[in-house]
Amino acid sequence: xxxxxxxxxxxxxxxxxxxxxxxxxxxxxxxxxxxxxxxxxxxxxxxxxxxxxxxxxxxxxxxxxxxxxxxxxxxxxxxxxxxxxxxxxxxxxxxxxxxxxxxxxxxxxxxxxxxxxxxxxxxxxxxxxxxxxxxxxxxxxxxxxxxxxxxxxxxxxxxxxxxxxxxxxxxxxxxxxxxx
Length: 180
What we know:
Layout: H1 6-34, E1 47-48, E2 55-56, H2 63-88, H3 90-96, H4 98-127, H5 131-154, H6 158-165
Antiparallel strand pairs: 1-2
Helix pairs in contact: 2-4, 2-5, 3-4, 3-6, 4-5
């Protein structure tokens, strides 16, 4: 009788669990991807007639606002992550190139202004949801996309980071690999 490793004993259960989880996730995401539920976060508030006091049901949810919000959240998170990465590794990036910090310092106030503009435009759109308001949000999203691309382009590649962290003339533990 041979002893089976933990992996061999539980591989079937792990694969079954992963398959079941991915099937469930597919079903859940499919429902969310095609429609927004009424009364959710992106449904406008119920309409109240101020004269009669009658409250009517909310109109359908706003998928345009949902798409704009999720894209803006992704772009803002990406920009913030790059700024945090640079701040946390400032000395290393300075060794690679001082232009990294200078370029990001130039983008920071513009990105902050774009985020503030997005917040103001979103508030205006929520007060009066019109296609023109959505197009203003899309314009600001274009600015955020440009800033996101710009900050990602500034961050050095892994090879540049490795070159900056390599100690020159250090003994190489593996004689087959040569120091650059």
